[in-house]
Write a structure and sequence with these properties.
This protein is of the alpha/beta class. The chain has six helices and seven strands. Strand 6 and strand 7 form a beta hairpin.
Amino acid sequence: MRRLTLLALTLVLLIGLVPSTQAAPKVIASWYEGAVGYELAVEEARYTQKPLMVYFRTDWCGFCRQFEEVLLSSERVQSYFDELITVTINPETGNDEARLASAYKVESFPAIYMHSADQTRVHPIRRTAMTNGRVRLQRPEEFVETLRQAATAVEGR
């Protein structure tokens, strides 16, 4: 009995030490993903002439989860994504993903960028706003306007 208890305790401890391999949230499940997805997204952006939005995230990032649950999952934001090519990259999943984050000079998460379809112009995207001197997450309609402005800036319209 003691041996069985020790084995069960060891298994519980080991399971707790295994890093989580959470899948991308449902809201971004239809996006391109990772370094390979990035290359495919770049090609689609060139072909369709749509701007490309690149979203860097990690599984452990609370601000990423908040961004996904509050903004990315809103109907208003989701409907605007029809006008964009979207890709999500977790730099902790591989060397190629880490190199992309380095190329973008990502220093914190989430990090969001808008590209022109021809990849000649890039614009960082803010997901926050200030109200009464306090930082807050943008409301969906504010975020859509931020995306529109960024798309206009990178497309030179």
